[in-house]
Amino acid sequence: VIIATIFMGVYIAIQFRHVSWSFGAGAVIALIHDVLVVMCALVISQYQFDLTTLAAVLTVIGYSVHDTIIVSDRIREDSTKRRREPIASIMNRAINETLSRTILTSGTAIVVLLSLLAFGGPILRPSAFTLLIGFITGTYSSIYIAGPVVLFWEGGTGGTQKGAGSSRAA
Prior knowledge:
Layout: H1 2-15, H2 23-45, H3 51-81, H4 87-119, H5 121-144, H6 146-154
């Protein structure tokens, strides 16, 4: 999993290199955050860690990376349209554009997982709990962790995008 995570980070960095190389680091840090939160929740809840729980953790990894890439891809699309705007402004617009899609997608999955958690019985409870925590953290980490990591490595909110020149004239 660690080697796969490193390769995912490198691949994402290469795919988004025209905007910023730090998208790979942002995705990997968000992914590590999601897995750590899920593991801590499993330890605190004292659910049994079996193969179905492991499958749920791997599903959380896939969901987290997918959701982060959706947001990052919108940032990449918007950055080609608005070359003179600061990266922070572009990120804000892109996150606002994908927010409703992200909330609706996660919300429907979370409703199903809540049903499984409530009515699934003792066999399904650990994996449903793992997926529930993972989907919640995966949703907010795509917005509140991956993006700020990119901004941090880009030097904050005031700079313009690489190669874009100076900010717009007043």
